[in-house]
Every structure is written in C-alpha cells, then in structure tokens.
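Structure ticket #2291
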Amino acid sequence: MQAAAARVRDRLRAAGRRLKARVRTSRHRVSGWRKWAVIAGQGAAGFVALFAVVNLTLSLSTFRGEDPASRTAHELGVLWFSTTDGRSTSDTAFRLVHGGEVGPNPTAADIRAHFERASEGGTFLLDQVMIDRMQAVNGRIDSRVMPPGVYVGAHALGPDDPPMVWVTKWLAQYLLFPRHAYILVVPAQGEAIAFSASQEGKFTNPVGDRQQLTARLTPFNDTAYDFPSSGEALHEMTIVSRDPAMVADAPTRLEAARHNLEAQDAAYGLFAPNSNTVVGCILEGAGLMSPKTRSSTLLALRAPGMGATCP
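Resolution: structure written out below.
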C-alpha cells in the first residue's frame, strides 16, 4: 500500500516538473512579461471554461425530476418563447409548452389540477408561459389556479431587458448553477404573496442604505421582485407545507421576519448573509427545514448562503 502511494506521489511530482518545464520553454510570439501575460490569460480562459463545464454538468444532472429529457425540453421551450417589455407570451407558446399536459385552452380548475399533480412529485416548474395563462384565465395567482400552501421558489438571476436578456437567460439557466430563493404563500382565500429578500438597492423605490439586506412582502404579480419574467422565466418550486394553520399564519410570520431583518441592519453579502440565508433561517425557524438539510453541500452549491449563520 505504501509502495503504491509512493508511486502516485512520484508520478504527481514528475507531472509537476513537466508542466513547469513546458511553461518555461513554451514558444510564444512575445517574450518577457508579455509572455507571462499570455500564459496568465490562457490560464484564466481555461478556468472560465472549466467553471462553465462544471456548472453545465450540475445544471443538467441535478434537480431534474424523473424525466430529465422532458424537463430540459420544457426549459428550452420556455426560454425560447419568453417575452420582454411586459408582453404576454403567445398562444402558440402555451400550446407547444403546456398543451400536451393541460390542453390548449385550460380552465382555472385544469391548471390547479396540473399543479396538484406536479407538487406531489417534489420540485416542479412555474414558468413565464404558464404564469401568463394563469393570469389570463383567472386574473391573478390564487388558490383557484395553485394548491394552497407554502412554497419555496428558486430561479436564476439575470436582466429582463434586451438585448442582453437574449443571451444571459440561457447562460444563467445552464452555465450558472446557483439560484436565488424566495417564499411564496398561496392562501386558501385571497391573492398569493411573495417574500423576497435582497439588497435594498435591488428593489423598486429603495430607501436608506442600498447595501442593506432587506425584504419585501408583496402580492405575487408582475410588480413582485420574484415573478417569472423574460430574464428569470423558469422558477423551480417546492411545496414545503400544506398545513392550513401554517398557511394561514404565514403572512403574519413573514411580515414579522421582514421587520426583524430590517432591525438587524445587516449588510448584504455576495455569499452570506444574502437572500438565501434569510429564506433558510425562516424555514428552519418554522420547522420546515432541518439544520442538517439547510447546511447540506448540494444546497450550498444550489443556493449559496442558505446554510450560513442567520443575520
């Protein structure tokens, strides 16, 4: 065993020596500091390529459900048909993306039945194409089109405005594995509400310190911070509670959490504390997520900051 380990170490040392020799003797059209600048640039490009490959692999291999191929086709269809400038997605988009599941002209009851089935399987998608149809059929997002419950939503972050969105929506979905999380509450009566945390400066009409970690509790509609849009067209949803008492009490609890967060006056952190940290702390405090799950490695990659110390 020791001999085998020694051979491995010798091979690694030899590989290191060969790499150093190759760098020293590599032929470039430039020399001196320019040569090292080229080498550094090549190394940076390699790192970016490796980062993209790792993220793409994770994006296509985890949280894909029981039928990854169908899931990917669904995502590609939504991204292709997503619209900008507040325009609704087309009837053609709905028919091609969702028609096979709910029919080309579903009622509110048909849509709710669709989400009843989807929520039983764990994580499911709520996308811009479906949201547009839900609003067209029902006028708003409520329990007539979604089962009552407390949901955790997660989506990629990106701009909504052209021309950048036509590129960034694809890159954010597949080449960046991390997601931004929020909480959605669909009460038995009344409009759905969303709890969104972020930098104060990211919200509409910011007040005070723009770097402060803060939150909003708003109706789940086009004005909400976390609402399916052109740059964030795909939301992964997980229902974490169907308990009627918890669902009814959720708005009050979330409003209290929002006030408590503002009182902490914590600065937003890229890795922590951030929006995912706030969501994780709320879920753990409500008994909807265990400390072990909140600090899991996979969740740390998918929702960076989720397992960090609460602000």
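Closing remark: The chain has a mean pLDDT of 91.
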